[in-house]
């Protein structure tokens, strides 16, 4: 099989990073284990366990096996080799993390978890090999060749990650990338009582910023939808298909934001994120995206850079309201801890990764678009 560039490899790495974060969070109070670190391999059945723990350990590694085996298949390896590679990588990752949990007092390593993780990865790899045998991967490649440019894999991974980034509570609808407050206080803590403590001091604490005016919130919502749209345009030939992609992005953004609100405040408040400015901002974003549907890919990358920068300025100028702070506490201390890592880091870093990608698209060579009928 010919080797092809695929978005599955960066997605697999991203998902592996999620597993590392979820397995070792909160990364504090490391200490030497009381027994040998490998003793968990021969341990008995855990004394405290729930059905949720068993299912989550099995299903948690399934996407990793699916993505890793799919990436290996796309690289031209055979089905058996791809499945074995995915299972070996998942087993090594799980064994390493279970071993490291010996050094965290709040975590308990388990051979049952290790076995379930490997089984989940094997199940995911089997799904990938089955999809390959059924021809679904070839169909996806044909679809991608018609809809996207050859250099699209990294950007596609960013597009797929965008709805997940919206699952972490945001200060404004579609307002990912608010890092100023945390970065500023982390800087103050790091340089306290050092000669650098007066080097960067803001006149107003970011947490005390006044609320954005409705007009600026409207602009932020519009840019929040246009930014991923321009990212998609930088990956696609200028055809009518872009209009379909924008509609799918809008649906995904709406669904992810509604799900996030429902998880934090209950199903009865699922649409509570919709403010007076949201419907108009959503409409303006869709309309502008459709007007720009035939923008050349390189021009779309430049427009995406400008829109992301504008969005980041507005999002980081927005205050952290009490409901937002409450939802953050629920994610960081409550029942969402297993999903805390991926959503938090995606919500913070997605626009900055998109900025770097779009900048690389601007500076790199542009492949000739394939415009299919």
TrEMBL record:
InterPro entries: VanZ-like (IPR006976). Residues 23-129 form the VanZ-like domain. It comes from Caldimonas aquatica. Keywords: Membrane, Transmembrane, Transmembrane helix. Signal peptide: none annotated. The keyword Membrane applies. This is VanZ family protein. The chain crosses the membrane at residues 48-71, 83-104, 116-136, 215-236, 243-265, 277-295, 302-319, 339-360. The keyword Cytoplasm does not apply. The lineage of its organism: Bacteria, Pseudomonadati, Pseudomonadota, Betaproteobacteria, Burkholderiales.
């Amino acid at each position: 099989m010919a080797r092809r560039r695929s978005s599955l490899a960066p997605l697999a790495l991203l998902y592996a990073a999620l597993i590392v974060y979820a397995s070792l969070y909160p990364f504090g109070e490391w200490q030497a284990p009381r027994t040998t670190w490998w003793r968990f391999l021969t341990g008995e059945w855990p004394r405290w366990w729930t059905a949720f723990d068993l299912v989550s350990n099995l299903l948690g590694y399934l996407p990793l096996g699916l993505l890793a085996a799919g990436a290996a298949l796309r690289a031209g390896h055979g089905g058996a080799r791809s499945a074995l590679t995915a299972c070996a990588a998942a087993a090594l990752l799980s064994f390493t993390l279970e071993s490291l949990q010996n050094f965290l007092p709040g975590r308990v390593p388990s051979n049952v978890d290790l076995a379930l993780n490997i089984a989940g990865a094997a199940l995911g790899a089997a799904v990938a090999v089955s999809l390959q045998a059924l021809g679904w991967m070839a169909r996806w490649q044909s679809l991608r060749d018609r809809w996207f440019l050859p250099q699209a894999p990294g950007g596609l991974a960013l597009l797929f990650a965008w709805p997940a980034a919206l699952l972490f509570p945001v200060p404004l609808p579609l307002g990912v990338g608010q890092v100023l407050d945390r970065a500023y206080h982390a800087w103050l803590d790091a340089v306290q009582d050092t000669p650098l403590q007066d080097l960067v001091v803001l006149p107003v604490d970011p947490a005390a910023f006044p609320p954005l005016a409705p007009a600026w919130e409207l602009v932020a919502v519009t840019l929040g939808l246009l930014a991923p749209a321009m990212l998609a345009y930088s990956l696609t030939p200028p055809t009518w298909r872009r209009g379909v992609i924008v509609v799918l992005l809008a649906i995904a953004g709406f669904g992810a934001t509604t799900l996030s609100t429902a998880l934090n405040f209950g199903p009865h408040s699922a649409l509570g994120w919709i403010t007076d400015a949201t419907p108009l901002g959503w409409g303006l974003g869709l309309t502008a995206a459709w007007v720009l549907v035939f923008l050349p890919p390189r021009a779309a990358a430049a427009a995406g850079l400008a829109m992301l920068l504008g969005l980041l300025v507005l999002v980081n100028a927005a205050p952290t309201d009490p409901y937002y702070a409450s939802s953050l506490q629920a994610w960081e201390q409550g029942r969402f801890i297993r999903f805390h890592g991926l959503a938090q880091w995606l919500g913070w870093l997605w626009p900055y990764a998109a900025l770097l990608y779009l900048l690389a698209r601007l500076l790199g060579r542009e492949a000739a678009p394939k415009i299919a009928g």
